[in-house]
Specification:
With 203 residues, the chain is an all-alpha fold. Helices cover 66% and strands 0% of the residues. Helix 1 packs across helix 7 and helix 7 crosses helix 8.
Length: 203
C-alpha cells in the first residue's frame, strides 16, 4: 500500500525506495503520536472513574447496571489481573480496561444513565453524539497505531488528526492537554520529514 501511494517514480527501484520512505515516515509519526494518545486515554479513564466514584460509589464497576459487553469487559479485566497474579483492586481494574470500554460509556446506550447525570459534567462539550463520534475517531487512530497500520493518506492528515486529538483532550483536561503539547514531538517530525514525501498523498 505504501508503494501504491507514491505518485511519481522513475522506475521500480525508485518506487520501492519512496514506498520505504513512506513506511518509515508512518512509523516515525505513529511513534510520536503514541504518547499523545496515551495521555488522552489516561485522562479520559481517570475523569470517568473519579466522577462515577463520587456519583455512585468507589465500587461502581461492580454495582452499575452495564450492558452485556461492558460487564464482560470488566470480568475479563479482573480475570487478567488475577492471572498475573495480582491482588484485585478497583484501581487495577480501571487500568486494565481497554480504551474501547471507556469510549462506549459515551454511546447512546448510556445517554440517560451515565451521560445525563454524570459524564456530561466532566467535559466542556455538551453534545454527546458529537463527542462520541470524536472519541470513535481517536479510538480508530489509536488502534491503527497499535496494530502497525497506515495513518498516512487518510481522511484527515496526521497533523489534522493530532490537532483534533488535542482539541478533545482539552475538553476533558486543559492541564493534561497543555502538558502533552509541551512534551510530544509530532509537529517536529511532521516538519522534518515532510520533504521526503512531498510528491505523495497528504500527511
Amino acid at each position: 500500500m505504501y508503494m501504491k501511494a507514491v505518485v511519481y517514480a522513475k522506475d521500480l527501484t525508485d518506487r520501492t525506495r519512496k514506498g520505504l520512505r513512506r513506511y518509515e515516515y508512518n512509523t516515525s509519526l505513529s511513534e510520536a503520536l503514541y504518547p499523545v494518545i496515551q495521555g488522552f486515554e489516561v485522562a479520559l479513564r481517570n475523569a470517568v472513574h473519579n466522577r462515577l466514584a463520587v456519583d455512585y460509589s468507589v465500587e461502581w464497576l461492580d454495582t452499575f447496571d452495564f450492558r452485556a459487553s461492558e460487564k464482560d469487559a470488566v470480568e475479563q479485566a479482573k480475570q487478567q489481573i488475577q492471572e498475573k497474579p495480582q491482588t484485585l483492586t478497583t484501581d487495577r481494574v480501571v487500568a486494565e480496561l481497554n480504551f474501547g470500554f471507556w469510549v462506549r460509556l459515551f454511546s447512546a446506550e448510556y445517554a440517560e444513565t451515565l451521560w445525563g447525570p454524570s459524564l456530561s459534567k466532566i467535559v466542556s462539550v455538551k453534545d454527546r453524539r458529537a463527542l462520541y463520534n470524536r472519541l470513535i475517531e481517536i479510538k480508530t487512530l489509536r488502534n491503527r497505531i497499535a496494530h502497525h497500520n497506515r495513518i498516512l493518506g487518510r481522511t484527515h492528515s496526521v497533523q489534522q488528526s493530532y490537532e483534533r486529538l488535542l482539541e478533545v483532550l482539552d475538553w476533558f483536561s486543559p492541564l493534561v492537554c497543555s502538558w502533552v503539547m509541551q512534551t510530544n514531538s509530532v509537529m517536529e517530525r511532521i516538519n522534518q520529514r515532510r520533504p521526503l514525501v512531498a510528491n505523495d498523498q497528504r500527511v
